[in-house]
């Protein structure tokens, strides 16, 4: 039996990168593993400057989109991180195991701290400890596999280190998890800046395809994607990042291999046109289902309520065990 856990952070509208790199696989494959859990990690959204009303809105929207993308609450558990106290409870004691140096080495911390600094803001302490909360998310459930895009590999690696260290120091408590990544589209790039990841909280909006973009907006964004100075359609991440990104997106949407597809196209225009239509078709059923679910918010709320109950039951024994192992007195 494989336990699967993954999450999505409500800091922006979900993107094609989230979908191809993670969500689509969760629905198609991962949820069918025993006891898979998918979490809207709202506590993580508080690690950067945010508008509370927007976090609430985006959390509801992320939950609705996870269901719209095919997660079935009869098959897996979908819930909101802040509804299950065990995450914060475990995070604190894992902070007593992880080190300051480990946190400061995290690429995402360095990038985000620099961005916050450039905006004139201060860096919240929780941004530094972000990976520990993520480790708590994963370790609380005895997770074996964490299906994520490439950008989360370092965080999962840190989670492994923390689990191993805890087990060695305090006795076997945690399963040591491993990250799994899709073969294609593990890192979808920004269409306007194909050397940077397509991130939902980025500033380069025209280069980001959102899951809820209307078909004509999707077409416009893909047709305006930055391509490379050469003319032939070649698969080459370093030399031809723009074209390679389109080939990856097309292959991920249609099935197939991006390198093989590069032989099929003689012009960038034709590649863009087919990619745009492929993305529109992939998003269509998600958008349709999202519309239906928006008409029934009580259903989504019910899913989250029972999801949190189930998650709490799954997490509590292991978090309690971690507390006891570290020397904390049991209450009463
Ligand atoms: P987040 O919200 O940034 O992204 C959610 C998932 O989408 C993947 N992803 C991408 N994949 C390919 N190309 C892209 N451009 C792209 N952008 C995002 C991410 O890799 C991720 O799988 N720290 C996590 C949330 C988190 C989490 C966890 C994940 C918190 N606790 C525990 C797994 C397990 C994050 O910010 O994901």
From TrEMBL:
Which compartment or compartments is the protein found in?
Cytoplasm
Q: What is its EC number?
A: 6.1.1.2
The record ties this protein, via SUPFAM superfamilies, to: Nucleotidylyl transferase
What does the record give as the reaction this protein catalyses? tRNA(Trp) + L-tryptophan + ATP = L-tryptophyl-tRNA(Trp) + AMP + diphosphate + H(+)
**Spans through the membrane:** none
Q: GO molecular-function annotation terms? A: ATP binding; tryptophan-tRNA ligase activity
| CDD domains attached to this UniProt entry | TrpRS_core
Question: Would the keyword Aminoacyl-tRNA synthetase be found if you checked this record's keyword annotation?
Answer: yes
Tell me if Translocase is a UniProt keyword of this record.
no
Q: Name one GO cellular component term.
A: cytosol
Give GO terms for biological process. Answer: tryptophanyl-tRNA aminoacylation
Residues annotated as binding ATP are 9-11, 17-18, 149-151, 188, 197-201
InterPro entries recorded for this chain? aa-tRNA-synth_I_CS (IPR001412), aa-tRNA-synth_Ic (IPR002305), Rossmann-like_a/b/a_fold (IPR014729), Trp-tRNA-ligase (IPR002306), Trp-tRNA-ligase_bac-type (IPR024109), Trp-tRNA_synthetase (IPR050203)
* Motif 'HIGH' region location, chain numbering: 10-18
Record keywords, A-Z: Aminoacyl-tRNA synthetase, ATP-binding, Cytoplasm, Ligase, Nucleotide-binding, Protein biosynthesis
- Principal place where this protein is found? cytoplasm
Q: Which residues make up the binding site for L-tryptophan?
A: 137
Q: Where is this motif: 'KMSKS' region?
A: 197-201
Cite the record's note on assembly. Answer: Homodimer.
Query: Entry's PANTHER family?
Result: TRYPTOPHAN--TRNA LIGASE, MITOCHONDRIAL
In UniProt terms, what function does this protein have?
A: Catalyzes the attachment of tryptophan to tRNA(Trp).
Q: Which NCBIfam families match?
A: trpS
The record's similarity note reads: Belongs to the class-I aminoacyl-tRNA synthetase family.
Task: Report the protein name in the record.
Answer: Tryptophan--tRNA ligase
Q: Which organism is it from?
A: Streptomyces acidicola
Q: What is the lineage of its organism?
A: Bacteria, Bacillati, Actinomycetota, Actinomycetes, Kitasatosporales
């Amino acid at each position: 039996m494989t336990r699967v856990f993954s999450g999505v952070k409500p800091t922006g509208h979900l993107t094609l990168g989230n979908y191809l790199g993670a969500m689509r696989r969760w629905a198609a494959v991962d949820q069918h593993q025993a006891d898979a859990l998918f979490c809207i990690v709202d506590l993580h959204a508080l690690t950067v400057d945010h508008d509370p009303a927007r976090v609430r809105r985006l959390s509801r929207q992320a939950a609705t989109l996870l269901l719209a993308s095919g997660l079935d609450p009869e098959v897996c558990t979908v819930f909101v991180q802040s509804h299950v106290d065990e995450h914060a409870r475990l995070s604190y004691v894992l902070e007593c195991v992880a080190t300051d140096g480990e946190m400061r080495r995290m690429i995402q911390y360095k990038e985000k701290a620099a961005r916050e600094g450039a905006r004139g803001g201060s860096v919240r302490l929780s941004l530094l400890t972000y990976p520990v909360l993520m480790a708590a998310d994963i370790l609380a459930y005895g997770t074996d596999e964490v299906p994520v895009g490439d950008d989360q590999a370092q965080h999962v690696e840190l989670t492994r280190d923390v689990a191993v260290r805890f087990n060695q120091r305090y006795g076997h408590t945690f399963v040591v998890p491993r990250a799994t990544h899709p073969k294609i589209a593990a890192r979808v790039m920004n269409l306007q800046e194909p050397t940077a990841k397509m991130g939902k909280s980025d500033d380069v909006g025209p280069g980001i395809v959102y899951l809820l973009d209307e078909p004509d907006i999707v077409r416009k964004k893909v047709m305006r994607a930055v391509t490379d100075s050469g003319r032939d359609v070649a698969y080459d991440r370093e030399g031809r990042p723009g074209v390679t990104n389109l080939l990856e997106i097309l292959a991920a949407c249609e099935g197939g291999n991006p390198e093989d597809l590069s032989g099929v196209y003689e012009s960038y225009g034709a590649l863009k046109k087919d990619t745009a239509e492929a993305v529109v078709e992939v998003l269509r059923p998600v958008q349709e289902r999202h519309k239906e679910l928006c008409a029934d918010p009580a259903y989504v709320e019910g899913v989250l309520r029972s999801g949190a109950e189930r998650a709490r039951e799954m997490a509590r024994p292991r978090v309690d065990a971690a507390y006891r192992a570290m020397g904390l007195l049991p209450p009463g």
